[in-house]
């Protein structure tokens, strides 16, 4: 395994806690795939589905050979993350206007979001390096995930969370796991800038997705999708775009699956941003190759409130490799999609619903054909953002209809309402 700068190709030592190259570029892990045999790997990954209470029971560490082969098993910090459902969602497909939609519910992870796939790898690596103080900037999911894994391996987490625009449930979840919370005026971008500048002084191991080990772990989402679909890929994979780590990991994972010979065709990737926080989409639409950060953010999908997505260069590579697209959706479109996903019995937080809203828009614009199949990645659990539910779930016509106006709970008044 090698740690390489994506801008200047300089190599760095993997066994030192380092986030960026001296030139400022992001780092990425590179491995040699030549010695790997695709059929042998398929058999191995299949056999590991029967594992119980070993690191290989995890839906991330099942793919250890493709993620962090050098890490000793004893250093693995796992909550058996991954292993999430891939659901054939007919009502969602009808809403989006395409033949088939599969929802990949990363919300079923132990802390309720896709961050766990990457966090188990970053924390395990930091643990193996002997780090004791872990840190992140977060809009709430990363902080919950980090606080959970740090607690599980007996370490301390310091989480920097903006004072405004973060769902209360996520902050409470982080605190409940024992995360040391630093609230500050500003955004995720400000928190990350602070950590990148000061982590070394404070002896902090940064677990945001600028840490390349996070991306390695998040690749397992597409590995699982591929295995669940018996190594035959859908036409499209749709992801929400905030910090863009999901898009970065998806592209890297697809590229590797193809290089090893585990899949033949690569699906197209669609990255969906909220209109109120869409610096990456604006760059792509303008045909530019330099991202202009968006200082003022305004989306109710709070996990997407990111104006300077650190992984934008990696996400751009994903688009290039997969002939991908970007699209934006309004908060209204996000909430309309969320209602369909919630009512289908799966449920998700608002940012996740951006995928289905984006799919609907891309199908309406005929960028996605109605006969194509799409996998939408649902990044966070329905209960992550209870305020968002209060915004609409209690106000649907059916809920009003069933409300007990008589304020009596007896047989006769219930009978009249049903
Ligand atoms: N929405 C994210 C933002 C942090 O992203 P990361 O990729 O740097 O972990 C969150 O939940 O905090």
TrEMBL record:
Domain Tryptophan synthase beta chain-like PALP residue range list: 77-380
GO biological process: isoleucine biosynthetic process; L-serine catabolic process; L-threonine catabolic process; threonine biosynthetic process
Essential cofactor(s): pyridoxal 5'-phosphate
Database matches in Pfam families: PALP (PF00291)
Domain of life according to the entry: Bacteria
First-tier enzyme category under EC: lyase
Catalytic activity, EC: 4.2.3.1
Keywords: Amino-acid biosynthesis, Lyase, Pyridoxal phosphate, Threonine biosynthesis
Pathway stated in the Swiss-Prot or TrEMBL entry: Amino-acid biosynthesis; L-threonine biosynthesis; L-threonine from L-aspartate: step 5/5
Residues with PTM N6-(pyridoxal phosphate)lysine: 115
Keyword Amino-acid biosynthesis: yes
GO molecular function: L-serine ammonia-lyase activity; threonine deaminase activity; threonine synthase activity
Keyword Lyase: yes
Family matches, as InterPro entries: Ser/Thr_Dehydratase (IPR050147), Thr_synthase-like (IPR004450), Thr_Synthase_bac/arc (IPR026260), TrpB-like_PALP (IPR001926)
Catalytic function, reaction form: O-phospho-L-homoserine + H2O = L-threonine + phosphate
Family: Belongs to the threonine synthase family.
Function per UniProt: Catalyzes the gamma-elimination of phosphate from L-phosphohomoserine and the beta-addition of water to produce L-threonine.
Protein name: Threonine synthase
Organism: Paenibacillus solanacearum
Organism lineage string: Bacteria, Bacillati, Bacillota, Bacilli, Bacillales
